[in-house]
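# nightly structure sweep
# worker-07 picked up a monomer target from the shared queue
# config: single-sequence mode, recycle default, output format = structure tokens
# input follows
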Amino acid sequence: MDDVTLLRELAPEAERLLERHLSRTKEWFPHELVPWDQGEGLRPGDAWDPEQFPMDDAVRRALVVNLLTEDNLPYYYAEINHHFGNDDAWGAWNRRWTAEEGRHSIVIRDYLTVTRAVDPVALERGRMHQVSYGFHQPIASPAECLVYVALQELATRIAHMNTGKLMNDPAGYEVMARVAKDENLHFLFYRDMTTAGVHIDPSGMVIAMERQVREFEMPGTGIEGFSAHAKAIARAGIYDLAIHHDQILAPLVLREWKLESLENLTPEAEKARASLIRRIERTNKVARRLTARREEDEAKALAS
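# output follows
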């Protein structure tokens, strides 16, 4: 199915899911979640001292990655607008989604700045680099865009929530939990839009799934020092390959989108499905191996 036809067929569902989303959202204000009193006495130019706000290094790294990921919003808006267009429910959704996403970077940055949980100078330099670098996930069609944003929103929700759980600070936990709730509602919209797409054009959606799972990267991949951040985040159990398989690929691609039981696929889609199933199986095996190795290393460290 061509892109124009797919979007036209999906338009009624986009309108229904937008109305559902608006009925479920709750108004909230970033400034009400920030512990402003902790910023008393701070002056421009004050040197950052990590001991001002002691925190596990992995959690600190996760907060930086989470925020810089949110900072890429202009590119997300442009990408979604490019594939879905600016008319009817599609445009209304993208504008509403963008307005809600904008609060995430506001509240996380204000929290980090006031508490001095991270170096504000390094954080701003990171923002400048990240937004200048932009967003480069290869997305070739509306079908691929739907699959990617569903995967990405779920991954972001998990990363935010797991980061918050490891913070020894009630205010920080509330900030990350509130952002994660928004991300979950966004995920549900994209998940169900993709499910509707599978019913309308199963072959096209399976081909899109295979490519986007194969090339999936979180938007934070372009962050300076991302590899070191990702390793620390994985070791802390905030987001790793096992989580990617168990909480994203298996429940979403296999169970929600029913990859293995879809019928009447084209030969190209059948080939894509077989490849994707093998990839998910390999991901699971590698994830178990990495988890076992990490647990062994942790046990050795405790014994030494």
